[in-house]
Amino acid sequence: MPKRPTNRFVPRLDILEGRECPAVNLSISGHALVVAGDAGANNIAVTDNGAGNVSVTADGQTLDATGIKAVVVRAKGGDDTLTYTLTAPQSNRTSLKFDLGKGNDTATIDLSQGVTAGRLLLDLKGGDGNDVMNVTLGSVAAGALASVDVMAARVTTSPPSALKVCSTAA
Ligand SMILES: [Ca+2]
Asked: How far is the C-alpha of 156 from the C-alpha of 159, rounded, in Å?
């Protein structure tokens, strides 16, 4: 009786390295536009016309919204990139809460259009990692309010997080 071949193919599963694409979740909650990142390196760009019209483009998704009074970004882990651009002077109340989470994040916040009425509150947290945060401020009209609160949180890498705040001439 012939010997059965021993060179049999044995299927087997290999565990692959994580290679998921970064993806954000864009949603609207009341008057707030919420951008939730994931553990990957999210690339988030927000434009705001200062009157409640806000557009977000992030990881290939886009959301345009009106009547927005708050923009909330939670980028979570990964080396995230956030740009926020005020394309016209802020003319009503808005609250910007940006938390970049872990990772070596980059934030570029352009408020150079300034605030003509109402108030603009910016709360920017870099989270752990070596973050670079650039905030450009504009003029604030009499009777209007701008509040900028930037925190690098714990610095776990060297060189430490960099923060640059520029103010254009009023
Ligand atoms: Ca992320």
From this structure: 9
CA–centroid distance, 164 to ligand 1, in Å, is: 22
Structural contact between residues 128 and 154, judged by C-beta atoms closer than 8 angstroms: yes
pLDDT in tens, 75-97: 999 999 999 999 999 999 999 99
Distance from Cα 25 to the centre of ligand 1, integer Å: 11
Token pair, residue 75, equals 């980028």
Residues 38, 78: contact at Cβ < 8 Å? yes
Q: How far is the CA of 139 from the centre of ligand 1 (A)?
A: 32
Q: What are the boundaries of each domain within the chain? A: 25-167
pTM of structure: 0.81
CA of 19 to the centre of ligand 1 (A): 14
Q: How far is the CA of 154 from the centre of ligand 1 (A)?
A: 17
